[in-house]
Amino acid sequence: MRKLTPIFWTALLSLAFIWSLGCNSNNQRTLTPTESPKNLLSASATQMGVLDSLAFTLTHEKGSTPLMTGIVMNEMEGAVDLPDKFSVDIKAEATVFSAFIEIKVIGIENTYHMTDPISGNWREISPGVLPFNFANLGRTLGGILTSIQGPMEEARESIGGQRTVHIKGTVTSRDLAALIPNAANNIEVGMEVWIQERDAFLIRARIEGPVVSTDPPDVVRILTFSNFNEPVTVEPPI
After folding, report:
1. Among residues 204, 168, 209, 205, which one has the least CA distance to residue 188?
2. Domain boundaries, the chain
3. Which of 11, 112, 171, 232 has minimal CB crowding within 10 Å?
């Protein structure tokens, strides 16, 4: 039998290494049980920062979010084609008439359109009308994750069949300004996040307390994230 040379083994090991890189190139980052909460947040921030797309929902455990004069938002769901395209469906309430309404918003680069709450017709709006900013959402979320102070691991929990790490800490309202442009200057806000063990994606965030001056004092918002890197199509409405 012909003896295999060291050059052969070196080549074989090199091919195996290259193959392993290819298998792990799909944004995989498995968390280990011994990682500190700070490292877990950093790993998740990295993953969220390189996303191509994601979907999200926002609900309220308590309170609601003022959307515009006389209208408060109860729920919102949408999809983002990063960095600067998104579509959003909003369930809101007209406080004067106690009537529930639905509003759609589409943003493409710096152009925003929203359906009129009364007529349902599309009209162009200024980005400042919206209480949230979805441009570069992945990097925004990454920045929020790394700004969490005093992070403590609460538990390892299963959400939607996925094992997650539940981390609790605080941020200041200004740490949320990239997501919520009208955030107040220096309010301490409770922050809980759930990070997937398998790939370090952020799949849930619980924001406890007011972020802007008009928020109810006991407001609690829940953000959930899904459909990471799945195709998203956002077209101009008119």
Report:
1. 209
2. 37-226
3. 11
Q: Do residues 86 and 127 lie in contact, with contact meaning Cβ atoms separated by under 8 Å?
A: no
**Per-residue model confidence (pLDDT) at position 32:** 62
Q: At what angle do helices 37-49 and 137-147 cross, to 10 degrees?
A: 170
Bond preceding residue 83 cis, omega within 30 of 0: yes
Helix (H, G, I), strand (E, B) or coil at 7: helix
Q: Is 215 helix (H, G, I), strand (E, B) or coil?
A: coil
Global pTM?
0.84
207-210, long-range: CB < 8 A, 24+ apart:
207/176, 210/173, 210/184
CB atoms closer than 10 angstroms to residue 187: 17
Count of CB atoms situated within 10 Å of the CB of 222: 15
* Residues in the chain, overall count: 238
Amino acid, res. 87: S
Predicted confidence (pLDDT) per residue in 170-184, tens digit: 999 999 999 999 999
- Quick one: CATH architecture of 37-226? Clam (2.50)
